[in-house]
Every structure is written in structure tokens, then in C-alpha cells.
Design a protein that fits this description.
The chain contains 15 helices and no strands. By secondary structure, the chain is mainly alpha-helical. Helix 5 (about 90-110) crosses helix 6. The longest helix has 25 residues, at about 90-110. The chain binds zinc ion (2 copies). One zinc ion binds near residues 107, 123, 124 and 204. One zinc ion binds near residues 107, 111, 120 and 123.
Amino acid sequence: MTALFLEHQSVLRFGFFFGILILMAIWEVLAPRRPLTMSKRGRWFSNLSIVFIDAVAVRLVFPGAAIGMALFVERHQWGLLNNLALPDGAAIAAGVISLDFAIYLQHVMFHAVPAFWRLHMMHHSDLDFDTTTGIRFHPIEILLSMGIKMSVVVVLGISALAVLIFEILLNATSLFNHGNVRLPGRIDGLLRLIVVTPEMHRVHHSVLIRETNSNFGFNVPWWDRLFGTYRNQPAAGHQDMTIGLSQFRDPRRLTLPWLLVLPMIGNPGSYSFWSRTKAGI
Ligand SMILES: [Zn+2]
Ligand SMILES: [Zn+2]
């Protein structure tokens, strides 16, 4: 069974990615949460081009990626989970949840350390918030993230199937929780007990520093609640809040070529925790 899933992993990944992207795009047209400020065509071109560049970069630098690493680790019986006699289901659940926690910590780190923030600010520079914002990550951030994920796989001995499930889930929830979609308050309230909703993650894309530095979770909302980084709603409300970063407000400077060099030439502002501590803000 596992071999079958792994054999068809590309089909599964592309199927979930395009399927959820299309569903979210339809939902955004039928029930948009906020009016968009930029032309969708330009933004979608940039954001979809970035996901393509990211995929090529990962393929070139880490041909086997995290799944290849998991298979290698499994063969050599390395890592914690490969040495515990857990039932398969429990080992997979532990692997998925551990990877999600690692991605939460990594996200906090990308906000904390100024050099990492320079890479991550490309994600936050989007002046609108819609499903394609969920795939807008700088290729160097994606490569670093893959390196971190592979290290977690080695140390914890996470199985290849758990890695595949986690990667498909993360992709799906990222497309979902960046959706510019209307969700009735009661349903949002119930959903955000188990998964990060668009209403929850939108707060993270606020231009206000204290709101940008909250709600770091991608899959489950529990880490934010556990570590005190949870923020229920944006102060200005979802309709009136400003999306993006205060130092990047010119759409002509946010086209694809500018986005790729943003970490090198862009002004990081005072969003990252450590730059603010040093500046005494
Ligand atoms: Zn962030
Ligand atoms: Zn985001």
C-alpha cells in the first residue's frame, strides 16, 4: 500500500495541488471576503511562476527531497520513530504532527532572525491575500525549509508515507488558509479548533507588526495557542485591515523580477523580532 502511494506520489501531489487551487479559485469568485486591490492577472502570474521556480530549485538541489531522505533513514533504521515499536498508524500520526510543529518553529525563526526575515518577507509583501499567496515563497526559503525538514526526518526517523501525507496536507492547508473566501463566523469558530482558517491566517498578513508576528501555524492552530502567539482577529477588522508590509506598497516594485531580488535589495523594515530588540523598539 505504502509503495503504491509513493509510486504515484507525483500524481497525488499535482492532483491535490491543482484540485484545491481550482476549488479555492471558484470559491473566491463566488464568495470573496475582501475586494482585491491589485489586478489578479499580474499577481497570479507572479505567484504561480514562483511555485514553478521553487519546484525546479528543489528538484535541482535535493533530487530525492524529504521522501528520499525518509526512505534512506528507514533502510538504515535511523531516528527515534524507526527505533520505537509503535503501530504504523501511530508512527505516521507522530511523524505528521512532529513535522507540523517543526514548520511552526521554522516560521517563528523566519520572523525572528533578520537574515531569514529578508527571505520570508517576500511571502508577506503580497498586497492582497488570496489562495495564490499560499504558494508565494522565495526559492531560497523553500530550499532552507527542505533542508530543515530533511534534518527532522533524520533525527525523528519519520517514514516516507508520513512525509508524503504531511507535504500534501501542508500544500492543501496553505492554499485553503490564504483563501480570500467568506466563511460564516460559527463555522470558522468550529474549524479553527482543528485547522488554521483563512480568518486566522489573514491576521498574520496584517501590515501591523504585532499582528504579523502572530498566528504562525499552517496546519493545526494548537501551536499558536500553546505558545502564546495566537491572535483571534485583526484590530481593524477583516474588511478594513491593510494587507502586506508597510515598506512595500508600490505594485510596480512587486513584479516577479523584483520579488526574486527582494531579500537582497529590499528594506526589511522593523518586523523581525531581533532587529526590533536591537533597535529598542
Ligand atoms: Zn510569516
Ligand atoms: Zn501566509
